[in-house]
Design goal:
Blueprint: E1 3-8, H1 12-27, E2 31-33, E3 41-46, H2 51-67, E4 72-77, H3 78-82, E5 92-94, H4 102-112, E6 116-117, E7 140-144, E8 146-147, H5 158-162, E9 166-167, H6 170-182, E10 187-191, H7 206-213, E11 221-224, H8 234-242, E12 249-251, H9 259-265, H10 271-284, E13 289-296, H11 303-316, E14 320-325, H12 343-366, E15 372-381, E16 384-389, E17 394-397, E18 406-414, E19 420-426
Parallel strand pairs: 1-2, 1-3, 3-4, 4-5, 5-6, 7-10, 10-11, 12-13, 13-14, 17-19
Antiparallel strand pairs: 8-9, 15-16, 15-18, 16-17, 18-19
Helix pairs in contact: 11-12
């Protein structure tokens, strides 16, 4: 029996693509095996969003090659797009197009023993259709609805390695969600590179898609992996108000809490616009948890600019902030900007903003002590059941519950790890 090990780095889109490929390899007679073990084939789905991502991609290529020097090693995705020249140790290189043809490429390699570098997304910009019928080992299922980005923020390499915006067919998305729900998945996560831009190339909008998915019988929760503040228009807000199936959590990247830096980043909003949109969302959904991304140490960011970002993050009352030091990507507009920040200062700013984020998260969680929360339980670890609420608060209970089910929990406190704790009050609920 042939074995294949998958190593997936980066975003939820990569997670979805790897899940699709795992399903495809199983149908072809392969056994999925941990990539830490010797395998006949390794598939590494890479990332290049930061310099650290590049390092991890190279490290995993070296690691897998060391595990079995005779294995067929496939590297695909964004790192390959960014570094299209031949990479040592890799037998088959695939960019962000033609991933679903990987088995065919492996067969060719087995016949010819010739290294292959396949066409990249720069040469093709069609949506590569993938359709999942299960999501092994996971309670919630991802559905990739969109690929590509055309924002061209000055710091970001993703538009260059993912290509133009392109959407999965409307009817195909609905059918995929229906089949996943029929398999027992109560929560579905819509994901893409620029998820809210779904439909720009077809005769549908993202709001229309959300509305249609919410009508699917049996779906309990619909989650959006990430969405830009500029995409939360009136149609979206109406759908959000009318459809409680859409969860009480939105991840909306801010990137900087200072108008000067937002402009240098090429972002398409200012702080006033962002804040007013947050107010509209919270008016519709008072319990909404809003998480965000912030880049610190962007070229030209002074101490005063950073202090303004700290104040903004507090004022906007995010549930949690994912903090990233600015990472210079070759070929982006930010490469040519003046005022690049010393690495030591960037590290200090990361720590300071993370401290603010931790306090915001604690304050948010405290609001829910003494309340009853519907929790979708996912894992059991050391006799503790772990799951998440609609607004993505992590919850633990020592009471015995059914995994992959939504259970009503009375929240009694918070652990040191910012996890809510509670007791079962209803073993199965439909919210």
């Amino acid at each position: 029996m042939k074995t294949v090990g998958f190593c997936t780095l980066g975003c939820k889109v990569n997670t979805y693509e790897s899940a699709y490929l795992e399903e495809m390899f199983e149908k072809a007679g392969y056994t999925i095996q941990d990539y830490h073990l010797p395998c006949d084939v390794y598939v590494i789905n890479t990332c290049t969003v930061t310099n650290e991502s590049d390092k991890k991609s190279r490290k995993m290529i070296r690691f897998c090659r060391k595990q079995n020097p005779d294995a067929i090693l496939v590297a695909m995705g964004c790192f390959i797009e960014a570094h299209p020249s031949s990479i040592e140790g890799v037998d088959i290189q695939i960019g962000n197009q033609s991933k679903k043809d990987v088995l065919k490429f492996i067969e060719t390699y087995q016949r010819t023993h010739q290294k292959q570098q396949l066409s990249t997304v720069r040469e093709k910009t069609v949506f590569e259709d993938m359709f999942l019928t299960s999501f092994h080992g996971r309670t919630r299922a991802f559905v990739k609805i969109q690929d590509g980005c055309e924002n061209f923020c000055t710091y970001c390499i993703i538009p260059y390695v993912r290509g133009k915006c392109r959407s999965k067919k409307f009817e195909t998305v609905l059918q995929e969600v229906k089949e996943l729900v029929q398999k027992g998945y109560q929560e579905v996560v819509l994901t893409g590179i620029h998820t809210g831009h779904y439909g720009v190339d077809i005769d549908h909008t993202f709001s229309e898609l959300l509305e249609a998915i919410c009508q699917i019988k049996g779906l309990v929760r619909l989650r959006i992996s990430s969405i830009e503040i500029t995409e939360l228009q009136d149609d979206f807000l109406r759908v959000l108000k009318e459809n409680p199936i859409i969860v009480d959590h939105l991840h909306i990247p801010l990137q900087a809490g200072c108008d000067k830096i937002l402009k240098r980043m090429g972002r398409k909003y200012d702080l006033d616009y962002f804040e007013k949109m947050l107010q509209k969302i919270r008016k519709i959904r008072p319990q909404m948890a809003i998480t965000t991304d912030v880049i610190v140490g962007f070229p030209g960011e002074t101490e005063e600019d950073f202090l303004e970002t700290l104040d903004t993050v507090k004022r906007f009352q995010f549930m949690k902030v994912h903090v990233f030091p600015f990472s210079l990507r070759e070929g982006t507009a930010a490469e040519k900007l003046d005022g690049h920040i010393d690495a030591h200062i960037k590290k200090q700013r990361v720590r300071r903003l993370l401290a603010v984020s931790e306090q915001l998260e604690e304050d948010f969680l405290k609001r829910f002590i003494g309340t009853d929360q519907a929790v979708l339980f996912e894992t059991l670890k050391e006799n503790v059941f772990i799951g998440h609420t609609s607004n993505y608060m992590k919850v633990e209970t020592k009471d015995k519950v059914a995994l992959h089910q939504i259970v009503m929990i009375h929240i009694t406190g918070i652990s040191k790890q910012h996890t809510l704790e509670g007791n079962v009050i209803l073993e199965k609920c439909e919210v």
